[in-house]
Amino acid sequence: MPLSRLLLRTLLPAVLLCAALPGRALDLPQRWVHGAAGEPTLQVQAAAPGLWVLRQSKRSNFEAPFLYLIAGERRALLLDSGAEPVAGSDLPLRATVDALLAQWQREHGRGETLPLVVAHTHSHRDHTHGDAAFRDRPQTHVVGRSVEEVAAFFGLTRWPEGEAGFDLGGRELRVLPLPGHDPAHIAVYDPPTRSLFSGDSLYPGLLTVRDLNAYRASAARLEAFARRRPVAQVLGAHVEMSARPGELYPIGTALQPDEHGLALDGAVLRRWRADVEGLGDFLHQDTRAQYAFARVPHAGEFADAPNTHGMLVAGVDTVYLSHLPMLHSPHDYQLIFEAELPAQALASYRDDAGRHPQDYYTLAPSERWALVQTIKPEARFRADLYRGHFERDGTPIAREVEVTVRRIVHFRRFEPGRRPDPGAWIAFGRGRERFLAHRIEGAPDMDQIVRIDGDAAPEGQTLRRPQARGSGELRVGDGIGRGRVERVLYTEYGDLAR
């Protein structure tokens, strides 16, 4: 059966004959093409009158992007054009779009070809591959991919500030600059459905941040926009989260049978903006229930000189290391990670800790290295283990211990101008050993780690202690979250005085 007839029979339900109602619920499927054998390379869903959601199969390209076709009375917008299909696979995007728009025209009593604009949420290859298929289409304009071209086409004269209308005829979209993931990134808002198309800036998956300051500013502007305009749902360009909260599919996954839904409730924008602000100048992957953040530093951005980076040891069942920071380079990082010690060194540590339950332990690396370049999952370094502080008459317990980085809980660089926050604590630990580390911001501040008797917050999350005063220092018996302080492991002011 010809593709056009197949589309008309199966992909255009009677909902297209209904009038578009403001804020109407979108008709989205329970399951998208997700890599199963025999599935089509392109799934089309008529989500609302004049709005189609297209999903490229993971069998065509593991990125499996979502594309959006929006039609008005005078023209249509295709937002993104997909990723390059694998060898031997075809992506019938042009034929699909043509058939959908032709049917739309017939339903509205028009026979002529509907003008089309092909634009992009951003310039990355998994969103632009299909452009070539539309360059010979009559009355079609393919928008360029640079900041200058995008800003000029949509009339965004104050980039990255401001917004612009884009009229399809009886349907005026709003277009906003959204750099941070990509310099030319935009968001598009569709008033009839109250849908916000957010590209790679926000979706259920791994949100890659390439320009942190731009991304922060974009999050603030988008959340402010949502206070002015009702947003029912946020529709991104990918789904990479499992339906289970906080669980990501690994990059390159070919089959995702238990995906998170595509649409995020509009209320997510306020939480996302707060999460972005709370990340600080982060360096690790930070996973939340509906999305995760990953940082892509610029070349040379963290080119610190090698130095000695001491660590506080927390935990006996599971060993965690917390970098002993200062507020100047190259020590201006708060870092907490799960570590693995060789069996003999671990046994020595546990035996000594059992005989000295009120003492704390530190590690002094045997070599000088740059913190950011060295501390990555599965990386190794050698260090000496001490009871007490290695620079303050500590007692050596084990020498030349090979330490393996297993999992980063928190990794962030201090930012100039940030004020100390006495009520902020970072949760970590597992099993019967749960800890809180004071979140360090700026001088004068405090480095403190305490053990608590309950599970105060998800690991890596920041817990707030209301009405904290002064430095926020905790003492044994203080309540915080759902627990109380059992033991104060370490408190340091001097290294963070200025």
Helicity, in percent?
10-25%
Query: Low-confidence stretches at least 5 residues in length (pLDDT < 50)?
Result: 1-22
Radius of gyration: 27 Å
CATH topology (level 3) name of the largest domain:
Metallo-beta-lactamase, Chain A
The number of distinct β-strands equals 28
How many domain modules?
2
Note the gap between the termini.
74 Å
Please summarize the sheet with the most strands: 6 strands, mixed
**Shape by Cα distribution:** elongated
**Full CATH superfamily name of the largest domain:** Ribonuclease Z/Hydroxyacylglutathione hydrolase-like
Describe the structure.
It is a single chain. The chain has 498 residues and is an alpha+beta fold. A hairpin with a 4-residue loop joins β15 (286-287) and β16 (292-295). It has helices at residues 3-10, 93-107, 147-154, 212-228, 268-279, 343-355, 371-374, and strands at 42-48, 51-56, 66-71, 76-79, 116-119, 140-142, 164-167, 172-177, 186-190, 195-199, 206-209, 233-236, 263-265, 281-282, 286-287, 292-295, 311-314, 319-323, 333-340, 361-365, 380-387, 395-413, 424-430, 433-438, 447-452, 462-464, 479-480, 483-492. The longest helix is centred in the middle third of the chain and has 17 residues, at 212-228. It folds into two domains: 3-295, Ribonuclease Z/Hydroxyacylglutathione hydrolase-like (Metallo-beta-lactamase, Chain A, 4-Layer Sandwich), CATH 3.60.15.10; 311-496, no CATH class. α1 (3-10) packs across α2 and α4 packs antiparallel against α5 (268-279). The strands form five sheets. It has a six-stranded mixed sheet, with helices on one face.
